[in-house]
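Teaching soon. Got one?

===
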Amino acid sequence: MRPWVIDANVWVTAADPTDPCSPVSRRCLQAVMRSRDRLALPAIAPLEVACALSRRFRNAATGRALAHRLARSERLTLLDVDSLHDHALELGTEGFLRAADALYAAAAHEIGGQLISWDQELVQRAGAVTPEEWLASHAQS
C-alpha cells in the first residue's frame, strides 16, 4: 500500500460539478478513499481548498464546509508546514515550483508517497500523476 498526497486542485475540481475534470477527480478520490491507503496533506490544504472553492462559487460556506471535512477526516494526516519547509524549499527552487506546490511535493517525499495532481508542472517536475493516470493504474478499485 502506497501513501498518497492529493493536490488541492483535485479536491476543488471534484467539488465543482461544472468543472470538466470533476467526474474523473470524483472517481479518483472515491477510489483512493476505498483503497484504505494512507493519505497525507500539507496543513495548508484545507485553507487552500476553502479559499479556492469560495472564490469559484462566490460562497464562503461552500469552501469552509469542505475545509472542515478535510481537517476532521480520520483518513487524512495533516503535515505541519514548518516540518516540510526545508524540503519544500529545496524541491521548489530546484523544480521552479510555486510555494504551495512545493509543499505538496515535499509532503509526498516525506511520507514516501505519490502525489496526485492535475498541475502539469507537478507532473513534469515533481513526479506527480494525474487522477486519470492514477485511475488507469488502479483499475481494480
